[in-house]
Amino acid sequence: MSPVTWIEFNSAVSKRLRNHSLTLQTVSWTLSEAKKDFEFFYRVAWNVELEAKAAKLGAEHPLSTLDAIQLASGILSKADIFVTSDQRLAREARKLIRKVEYI
Q1: Neighbour-count burial of 15, counting CB atoms closer than 10 A to its CB (0-12 exposed, 13-18 middle, 19+ buried)
Q2: pTM for the model
Q3: Partners of 82 in the beta sheet?
Q4: What angle do helix axes 87-96 and 65-77 make, rounded to 10 degrees?
Q5: Whether the predicted pLDDT of 48 surpasses 90
Q6: How far apart (Å, rounded) are the C-alpha atoms in residues 88 and 58?
């Protein structure tokens, strides 16, 4: 898991609260349950290698900064599952990471 995944998840859930598509109770429950699940994932540490890989990917592919970090994390971790709801990120990931299950 990328070092920004938890931040992005919180941001997405909070956005749903602000646009009234989730209640405060649902958001609290979702964050609590997700935090439990996230404890079981391997987290890629932020380091010089991740920074360099993300910068290179961002320069070579049409990716946002956060998507470049996510993709670099997937590559460096040698993940066997890559999860994203972003179609552009998934498309770029499929070009670079071959032996992985995409969700």
Answers
A1: exposed
A2: 0.82
A3: 102
A4: 40
A5: yes
A6: 13
